[in-house]
Design a protein that fits this description.
Elements: E1 3-13, E2 21-30, E3 33-39, E4 48-51, E5 56-59, E6 61-63, H1 75-82, H2 92-101, H3 104-120, E7 123-126, E8 128-129, H4 136-146, E9 153-158, H5 167-182, E10 188-193, H6 200-212, E11 216-217, E12 219-221, H7 229-235, E13 240-243, H8 249-256, E14 261-264, H9 266-272, H10 279-285, E15 289-291, H11 305-316, H12 320-334, E16 351-354, H13 361-364, E17 371-376, E18 379-380
Parallel strand pairs: 1-4, 1-5, 6-7, 8-9, 9-10, 10-11, 10-12, 12-13, 13-14, 14-15
Antiparallel strand pairs: 1-2, 2-3, 5-16, 16-17, 17-18
């Protein structure tokens, strides 16, 4: 394996408690791992070196919530929302029809395109959900294709109930044949616990069936209403409760006292003109917070983690440091990974080089393409 020394790092924001933030730093990549980091004056020799000319280096962003396996376009739905039509969960069904009709080659190409956009935006690890098939054959096809791009595959057969389908029969399908087919190709099970999708009891049944099949739970919770999704996530020790737009005091206490991460998705609020989650209240309560893109064709068709960070700072009262930590350490926690999300010896050499001297510029210069390089497993992509 070849060693590579990154020199001339103006600010190395490791997100690691031992190393913290280092100025005038260097970092050694040994294969796909970090072999050394510290002050530039003490840097070891390496087979090759790259001078970053004072740029800032961060861990690669971890996008723990994304819906990338789909076909079709819902730009007209977006335009209708911008004209005053409220967002509901019903638009998912139009994507389902397009996805069912699409050949594998089209789905694979669209997924690869979106994965490339995420890498260009500094994301080095991303989760990918099924959920636009809603029949066994298409859900199985979705998780298989997703697994070609990421190990973080989520079975989301419980996205909505398909049109003209008996509700009880569909739940039996999701918890039975569909789950059995998809579980070998997934790591996670998810459910859209929300008005217009699945209630708490239905969601509990789906998640318990997934757990029994060897999958780890996560769920969409409290996006449109202050329902019981967050409490269910904590009850089942889910890795994350995602959205958390409408929270009660009891929800805050439950999250703060649990191992469940509150994953916030500000690009959705931006795209639906909805209220933003109260990140400040979550952080002040002691909850672990993650930021993710929720890239999907309906409520937030963006792969820009830098924009999510800027929105978190501007609209959700997070500091720039808190927002970057949520997009790295928080995302790793939401995927229950300890090898990514921070820069330290022995961890994966997944990192982002900014065309800026500090990560402050991610919020200070919103919309500006500041990702100079993304390194994935020690290789620039």
């Amino acid at each position: 394996m070849t060693t590579t020394l990154l020199t001339g790092i103006g600010l190395l924001a490791t997100q690691d408690d031992e190393f913290g933030e280092l100025t005038d730093a260097a970092l050694l990549i040994d294969g796909d791992r970090i072999g050394w980091l510290g002050p530039a004056a003490g840097a070891p020799a390496a087979a090759r070196a790259h001078d970053l000319a004072g740029r800032c280096v961060l861990p690669g962003f971890v996008d723990s919530h994304a819906h990338l396996l789909f076909a079709g376009d819902r730009a007209a739905e977006f335009a209708a929302r911008m004209s005053g039509q409220p967002y509901t969960a019903g638009g998912i069904r139009s994507t389902v029809a397009a996805t069912r009709a699409a050949p594998d080659a089209l789905l694979r190409a669209n997924l690869a395109r979106l994965a490339g956009e995420l890498h260009a935006a500094g994301v080095t690890t991303f989760e990918c959900k099924s959920g636009y098939g809603l029949d066994t054959a298409t859900e199985l096809r979705s998780v298989r294709l997703a697994a070609e791009q990421t190990p973080e595959v989520t079975f989301l057969g419980a996205h909505v109930v398909p049109a003209d389908t008996d509700r009880a029969e569909y739940l039996d399908l999701v918890c039975g044949e569909m789950l059995s087919s998809c579980a070998p190709h997934a790591r996670w099970v998810d459910v859209f616990c929300e008005r217009g999708a699945f209630d708490v009891d239905e969601s509990r049944a789906v998640l318990r069936a997934g757990i029994a099949a060897g999958l780890l739970p996560r769920l969409h919770a409290n996006q449109l209403t202050a329902g019981g999704g967050v409490q269910l996530a904590v009850e089942l020790d889910a890795a994350s409760a995602d959205h958390c737009t409408h929270l009660t005091a009891a929800d805050l206490d439950a999250l703060a006292g649990s191992g469940t991460v509150a994953t916030l998705l500000p690009l959705v609020e931006f795209s639906t003109r909805s209220p933003y989650p109260d990140a400040r209240a979550l952080l002040d309560a002691g909850a672990t917070v993650a930021l993710a893109t929720d890239c999907n064709p309906g409520s937030g068709y963006s792969t820009s983690m830098p924009l999510a960070i800027a929105l978190a700072v501007r609209e959700m009262r997070m500091t720039p440091a808190e927002a970057v930590r949520a997009a790295t350490v928080g995302g790793a926690a939401a995927l229950r990974r300890d090898d990514i999300g921070r820069l330290a010896v022995g961890r994966r050499a997944d990192l982002v080089v900014l065309d800026a001297p500090s990560y402050l510029h991610l919020a200070y210069r919103p919309g500006v393409p500041l990702i100079h390089q993304t390194w994935l497993g020690g290789v620039p992509v």
